[in-house]
Amino acid sequence: MFTKQTLLAFVGALALAAAKTTTEVNPTQAEIDADRLTARPYSPVSNVRGLVFDRFVNIWLENTDYETAAADANLAKLAKEGILLTNYFAVTHPSEPNYCASAGGDTFGMDSDDFLQIPANVSTIADLFDTRHIAWGEYQEDMPYAGYQGMRYPLSGANQYVRKHNPLVLYDSVTNDAVRPRQIKNFTTFYDDLEHHRLPQHMFITPNMTNDAHDTNIGVAGNWVESFLPPLLKNEYFSKNSLVLLTFDESGNYTHPNRVFSVLVGGAVPQHLKGTTDDTFYTHYSIIASLSANWGLPSLGRWDCGANLLDIVAERTGYVNWEVDLSSAYLNQTYPGPLSDSHYSAKWPVPLTDGECSAGNGIAKVVKKTYHGLHATRDYTSPVPYDEASGNNLGIKYSRTLKHGKKQSGITGNQ
Ligand SMILES: *[C@@H]1O[C@H](CO)[C@@H](O)[C@H](O)[C@H]1NC(C)=O
Ligand SMILES: *[C@@H]1O[C@H](CO)[C@@H](O)[C@H](O)[C@H]1NC(C)=O
Ligand SMILES: *[C@@H]1O[C@H](CO)[C@@H](O)[C@H](O)[C@H]1NC(C)=O
Ligand SMILES: *[C@@H]1O[C@H](CO)[C@@H](O)[C@H](O)[C@H]1NC(C)=O
Ligand SMILES: *[C@@H]1O[C@H](CO)[C@@H](O)[C@H](O)[C@H]1NC(C)=O
């Protein structure tokens, strides 16, 4: 499975000093400059074959309604090269809880973009990848150094790098680790890793606040996509057996459905599906579930457990996705939790410790061990990640017909 180089890299990394989780929101420039001298990006490689793809690249833009993005010429052009996902939903507002969700399978009630830290007993996709030694990395444009934990960079002036758009840095189970923070890297390291064939099998890419549309508009982001992605898709090393998702953290209008323009491109997209659409209901949690199904990884036991799988993956595993009645689906609310300002509740949600989950590989051992004997707080087997919130995300119906004809159905808020 592993090249000699990979093993050496893993062993070498262990020899380094322990990293520290810091609560310093705004370090000084002098502190940043000092830390930069010792910070070293780390780029493990691995080659674990997947059912449908051998590499997954997750690229997120910001705050745009589906229709607004679809009208951008560059994004419309990209969609013709791959599969356009027409019912992919973000899970709440504002930004940070969506990034958080993509790594840990829940928002924990988060309803702000504050400096927040998630306790070390909460697992993430990094733990899932570790079960099969799948190398992962994040590339964050304009981050001052690998593993930086501060709120933003630069410290003043136009925003470039922001912590709220960095999924894994929010988790103490990542930042407490000696090695993991070093896999959260700058864009310059992306180009280094590309050149030296050291790209990981899973990567999350966050362009800066100009390029991702946050501080600009969809035209600027579309231009960035057009300059960034097509050259990579032509690069055999980057693209071969790779599945690239271009999506958005959330829609632009909070009162509109939280549906976001999402396209799958890359060498893993079968030729006959290029230029097609897929109207299956997906959320950010579907990506965690699809990574698990693709590489034989367990579930986090959170909202990834019941999430629909990307159709090209479900087709291979035989999983039957749920059809969701979208007539009242907004997915624009928050629910009570320890990271909520508006519906604070002290209790950290307990994940499922038992069940097969949509990916079919059960729950991660570390999750079973940590939460042994406790009952799941939420209805994590549901494909729609809401169960008791206020407002209009209750009563969303979902159903499916299994292969032998058995019909199943459910409804949010009706546990
Ligand atoms: C971080 O990346 C930016 C571009 O994204 C680059 O200008 C800068 O020099 C990099 N900084 C370090 C410390 O590598
Ligand atoms: C964002 O990145 C681009 C290059 O990709 C750079 O030109 C720009 O200066 C960066 N930051 C801002 C605030 O525009
Ligand atoms: C918000 O909705 C309006 C009206 O439909 C639309 O013109 C605008 O582009 C939307 N905003 C974003 C950021 O998508
Ligand atoms: C969600 O959307 C509905 C329908 O437009 C709206 O009534 C509600 O206020 C929105 N909720 C939030 C939290 O923005
Ligand atoms: C996980 O950590 C949180 C915060 O420290 C704590 O409240 C919770 O009880 C812990 N859960 C378990 C199962 O240990």
UniProtKB/TrEMBL annotation:
One of its GO terms (molecular function) is acid phosphatase activity. Coiled coil: none annotated. The keyword Transmembrane helix does not apply. Residues 1-19 form the signal peptide. Keywords: Hydrolase, Signal. It catalyses: a phosphate monoester + H2O = an alcohol + phosphate. It is an enzyme of class 3 (hydrolase). It comes from the Eukaryota. Its EC number is 3.1.3.2. Pfam families: Phosphoesterase. One of its GO terms (biological process) is phospholipid catabolic process. This is acid phosphatase. It comes from Penicillium roqueforti (strain FM164). The lineage of its organism: Eukaryota, Fungi, Dikarya, Ascomycota, Pezizomycotina.
